[in-house]
Design goal:
The chain contains three helices and no strands. The chain has 61 residues and is mainly α.
Length: 61
């Protein structure tokens, strides 16, 4: 089998925030192994909601 060539993407501030939230929720390992598409709609909504809340309140580590 041929290996898939993944293009490396430059991560934006929002990408980094999404990764940070995924780590806090304990789902980062699943995302790394299976991709974002492996998450349920409810979990994706939770990540998006937390991102929106932090961006709205200006909370950024």
């Amino acid at each position: 089998m041929a290996a898939k060539n993944k293009k490396t993407k430059v991560l934006t501030e929002k990408d980094l925030l999404k990764i940070e939230i995924a780590k806090e929720m304990g789902i980062w390992e699943q995302v790394q192994n299976e991709g974002w598409e492996s998450l349920s709609n409810a979990v994706c909504g939770k990540v998006g909601g937390l991102m929106s809340k932090r961006l709205r309140n200006g909370i950024r580590p």
